[in-house]
Amino acid sequence: MNAFELYNPTKLVFGANMVERLGELVEPYGKRILLVYGGGSIKKSGLFDDVMFQLGRIGAVVHELPGVEPNPRLSTVNKGIEICRAENIEFVLAVGGGSVLDAAKAVAAGALYDGDVWDFTIRKAVIQEALPIGTVLTLAATGSEMNGNSVITNWETKQKRGLGSKHIYPRFSILDPKLTYTVPANQTVNGIVDIMSHVFEQYFTLTTDIPLQERFAESVLLTVIENGEKAIKDGTDYDARANLLLAGTYALNGTLPNGVTTDWATHGIEHEVSAIYDIPHGAGLAIIFPNWMKYVYQERVGKFVQYAVRVWGIDPAGKTDEEIALAGIEATRAYFTRIGAPATLGELEIGDEHLERMADEATQFGPIGSFKQLTKDDVLQILRNSL
Amino acid sequence: MNAFELYNPTKLVFGANMVERLGELVEPYGKRILLVYGGGSIKKSGLFDDVMFQLGRIGAVVHELPGVEPNPRLSTVNKGIEICRAENIEFVLAVGGGSVLDAAKAVAAGALYDGDVWDFTIRKAVIQEALPIGTVLTLAATGSEMNGNSVITNWETKQKRGLGSKHIYPRFSILDPKLTYTVPANQTVNGIVDIMSHVFEQYFTLTTDIPLQERFAESVLLTVIENGEKAIKDGTDYDARANLLLAGTYALNGTLPNGVTTDWATHGIEHEVSAIYDIPHGAGLAIIFPNWMKYVYQERVGKFVQYAVRVWGIDPAGKTDEEIALAGIEATRAYFTRIGAPATLGELEIGDEHLERMADEATQFGPIGSFKQLTKDDVLQILRNSL
């Protein structure tokens, strides 16, 4: 186990109808609110009205940043920053899924920075402060509700990059499983793949002697696998939605990487695909992750054997380690296919035109990943195997 | 799953030699420090000198509260409160195991309260504020390093009671597995039992549809079972000590009870035993917990079946649920015995003289527990079965 620091001050408020507590949770931070949301589904569902009602009860002055895209754009973030400055915003409230939350975090950091918020993604500047943020989550996937990370896309340059800081942890996040009832099946599927991929990035590591972290990771995977299918079958299954939502939070709230050298290469590769093609993050991961697994498993076959046995219940009797490991990878692909996720870039009508550029961008600062360090050629090969 | 709130702002700093970071961690809170510690083992080990050196580097003024007892006493806590008031203490630093941390928390809360700190334990008053606290942990067991709870004993009235508040979460806790190398085997054993018991109190619940919380709990148990024996065999096995330490923290840092109705009856019963006999908490729990299990398992046999199969690897083939459940309970007892924990009160020379009083005290506010609500007669029976 490596040395590590664990710090996560987000208050999670979990349960049916918890939006009722919104006013009480926002009030300590001020009354001038920027409300960040997406394409309008929260208006259809009635959540927008509920949020406005609760904010009205504390006499809040609400400005709006609507229309945050699935891969949230720098231009939208900049719009939010302008509003914050012009209206002396005191608190940023994100209501939506991961992209809305990520956009709100970038807005909150950019509003107090005397420069271009993109600087944070290219490490030209470090976040020193941010407006306080709160979230009402409507989709199990991102983990953004309980961490200090954000991913935004510069649509002009087709670059998708991350920023992170302890200053952009949400002060609170409201998680009501009922708010995810209306998530369409395909988005539920993308969320499931996203959550599982977050776990993979922290589970497939060369770090040894981390039994608790491994079992925690397997716990999240098993919970998602079991409850994901239930939630797809019946979107209003409260327990399935609740278990999926909680698993999504724990996949990325700092519980799994304690003392572990994590990887994140596959996320890096996927970001290059969705920066160019604007596909859902979960769909890209469903295509690439099993191909990453096949490309790297020989670096530490034992870990993939453990994964196959503990997560997928592969019976090791009469099989070589190699066969067990491959069976686990096949089970992953089969599960993704069973729930309706894509298996090839071709299914999304993506050809080989930009693979070279994606591989270039993904490795622009050098090889990526830690389970196996991937050069540009490695990335290109994984992308070709994903066609 | 029930509704819940999760909030844990303690910063965990985990790894070898992390005491080097003490000055930097303390400095934001002030320089007038109360250093709380136990019977002097930190002087023998050299940790005391290391701590004083680090505090010296930031020019801290250090006052001392030494001699905190294994079941920390109200009288000692009151001594600490007096020092805080007389010396305008700004920060309370606990260096030791659970009892030292618990005493420090009570001191920190009491110092800013204009009344008797015992009021907090009998719910005559609620903690409104506390001096900031930091800890350097020397024993895997308590969980106190990352939660807002404390247990102290009024030796005059022979009462052991808890207090809790968000205000007494440590601001930071330093966990260096090497600091636990010198913990004697019997204390390592008590710590193992303590950690496992914390999990039991949150795992054996009537709440259903909590797969993630159940698997997390099983993860902690499996980690403790595997690494506990290694740590007893070789006290300087870094990975065993590290895994045990991290498991101890996760057993009681708010990860396991999310949305779960917890029990805590066995802790209540044990507190009454150790309030009178001043035995180690872990020893009392090793005796009582398997007897509690046998007394209550029929309330929900399925949960005990799951426990037996997943944690102890009991083969269910050809057995009734009842037999599987009992085999899991027997495996628990056998493990405690294998690592050298006591199985009966008699082994600690405790007879039946005060059982009636213990049962009375344990149930003074009504029946205790939730898996099965225990009346005075139930508690008395469990204690008799423990003789």
TrEMBL record, chains A, B:
Residues 188-386 form the Fe-containing alcohol dehydrogenase-like C-terminal domain. CDD domains: BDH. One of its GO terms (cellular component) is cytosol. Residues 9-177 form the Alcohol dehydrogenase iron-type/glycerol dehydrogenase GldA domain. Pfam families: ADH_Fe_C, Fe-ADH. Keywords: Oxidoreductase. This is Iron-containing alcohol dehydrogenase. It comes from Cohnella terricola.
